[in-house]
Design goal:
5 helices; 369 residues; six-stranded parallel barrel; globular
């Protein structure tokens, strides 16, 4: 009898373990949450599941549209992590982009609320719309014990009546930001910065900000308050309306920001690029604009999503290759309902090459006269 009871206990234990593993796997597109095999995130619901696995590792495998219910109604997106349970894992955006982040809350706001001993990299968050009565950052509100942010870029706006407001993060301590930028406008009552609202014992390198910064009290082009150390980093004094920044960095005019020679010690071979008409003539991350390549016949730009496909219009003489299926269903909402903007026209035709690689482009929408 004792042996039978032990066997039943072992069987039940195995079943529960397997159920837990299957349950976790079902929440994501793949992976097991380990560093070597991170959970794969392919849609908004899977992104939301990060809050239930705060110590795990994640990677995006698709662009994420958050402009869907329930994340675009009521209070909008609920920030991931709080003071009791901060995010302490890793998120590799894989140079995919999150669009449609909407938050309208009285509390601290951002894609992440709190994160400590975490890493977030290779991620774009575009067209964010955040309203708050407290601290806010488009990526993150607060890290009190270290976060590494690398190759992250944001656009959109934050409107807050509180303090600690930044285009990437609201408040950082013992952290670092590298090779990142924000073009978001940010406003608040106090401690408002183009990149970070308040930063203590935090380093910022090879990064920039261009969005309008508005505050009733402490403010800055890059950092709004405290003791950050910014090196090889810049803000646009005209578009931010800021003449200074806490912790260093260099303010440049818009014309100077468009001059590649101003960006000393920046890697424009592998990390950054500047092209007329692209990103409003500011530097952009190469891997974000295309999945890879240099646009030459031998090393064509790699296209992995519809945004990369649309970016062909800025490189009409370049060479391209599609590296996976492209879902263009989002084009139905583009250009005020006109959909996809055709690449090339009578004055500037496409004269490069496109190798589809045998991959389909699906759900392309055009409604033009």
């Amino acid at each position: 009898m004792r042996s039978t009871a032990i066997q039943k206990t072992l069987i039940l234990s195995v079943i529960l373990t397997l159920w837990g593993s299957v349950h976790a796997f079902a929440q994501f597109a793949g992976g097991d949450g380990s560093e070597g095999n991170p959970y794969q995130i392919s849609d908004a619901d899977e992104l939301n599941e990060i809050r239930n696995y705060l110590n795990s590792h994640f990677v995006l495998v698709n662009d994420i549209n958050l402009d869907v219910a329930p994340y675009n109604t009521g209070d909008g997106w609920e920030p991931i992590g709080d003071s009791g349970d901060p995010f302490s894992g890793t998120l590799d955006g894989n140079f995919f982009e999150i669009t449609g982040l909407y938050i309208d809350r009285t509390s601290d706001s951002g894609l992440f609320g709190r994160a400590n001993s975490a890493t977030i990299k290779n991620l774009g968050i575009l067209d964010a719309d955040i309203k708050s009565e407290a601290g806010a950052g488009i990526l993150l509100h607060y890290s009190s014990n270290g976060i590494h942010i690398s190759k992250v870029y944001t656009t959109g706006k934050i409107e807050s009546s509180g303090q600690y407001i930044g285009g990437i993060a609201g408040r950082l301590y013992d952290s670092d930001i590298e090779q990142s930028y924000s073009r978001a406008s940010v406003s608040g009552d106090n401690r408002v910065g183009g990149l970070v609202g308040e930063a203590g014992t935090t380093t910022i390198s090879n990064s920039y900000a261009t969005g309008l910064v508005t505050s009733n009290n402490s403010e800055g082009g890059l950092v709004g308050a405290f003791s950050a150390t910014a090196s090889n980093s810049f803000w646009d004094t005209e578009t931010t309306n800021q003449a200074s920044s806490f912790g260093g960095g260099t303010g440049l005019t818009t014309t100077e920001m468009h001059d590649v020679d101003e960006y000393t010690d920046w890697d424009f071979d592998d990390v950054w690029a500047m092209d007329a008409g692209v990103n409003d003539d500011y530097p952009y991350l190469r891997a974000a604009y295309f999945a890879g390549g240099a646009g030459t016949e031998a090393d064509p730009f790699e296209i992995s999503n519809v945004y990369h496909l649309q970016n062909m219009k800025d490189h009409l003489e370049a060479h391209f290759v599609v590296i996976n299926d492209v879902d263009a269903s989002v084009t139905e909402d583009w250009n005020d309902g006109n959909g996809w903007e055709p690449v090339g026209n009578g004055d500037d035709p496409f004269v490069g090459s496109l190798d589809g690689g045998g991959f389909p482009i699906k759900n392309l929408y055009i409604n033009r006269e």
